[in-house]
Amino acid sequence: MILIAVVxxxxxxxxxxxxxxxxxxxxxxxxxGRVAVLDLDxxxxxxxxxxxxxxxxxxxxxxxxxxxxxxxxxxxxxxxVTCMPxxxxxxxxxxxxxxxxxxxxxxVWEQLARAGFEDDHVVLIDTPPGPSVYLHQAFACADVxxxxxxxxxxSYATIPAMESWIDEISAQRPSLVSVYVLNQIDSTVSxxxxxxxxLRQHLGQRxxxxxxxxxxxxxxxxAFQQPVLSxxxxxxxxxxxxxxxxxxMESVN
Length: 253
Hints:
By secondary structure, the protein is an alpha/beta fold. The protein has one domain (about 1-250): Rossmann fold (3-Layer(aba) Sandwich). It has 10 helices and 7 strands. The radius of gyration is 17 Å and the shape is globular.
């Protein structure tokens, strides 16, 4: 089982859409039934990218509090990706779940193993922005950490904090591969080009050579509750995500 944590230190960078679209790209490459996504973000929005609707209430939060197997909240989608949503949760339920995660640092890994994912599965984990117990859990089990950035000053300012997290985890798990990915690239904006170049100079080989361009099809796809690869197979973002997924798979293998 290959575990890919998709993370960021600030909101609004397109982390969840990147998670969903990468998962769809992996499913297109590997075949149906081999790719899953796990939503560890209390915003509980990842499942909307897979047409599972606003009425889906159950998820890993409540399921964990009842010690039930995550198989019960693993929902197949018509896009070849199985989705484990965070689920609706009250504030006390969320707090209890986070306390459980704090007390059991390997909880996510153990639950994924219990759910029966095989060695040839790829599981992508979506996390809330910034430091959290969810980020700790994702880093504790991930083979790859994909850090999503925008080409703006706000994202650049978060890099030292993320580097500190990665250094701390890498000391315990030297096999962890970390890669920064630029999202919503717009080469027509001079500031975007300038910041992109600064990020490339600063991050070097840690910045993926394949970024995702700004493309209205990404937000339109979410409005229709589907990955951009299904909504518009020929748009720029689709081509970028497919290439990025292929490059990531080569990096892992």
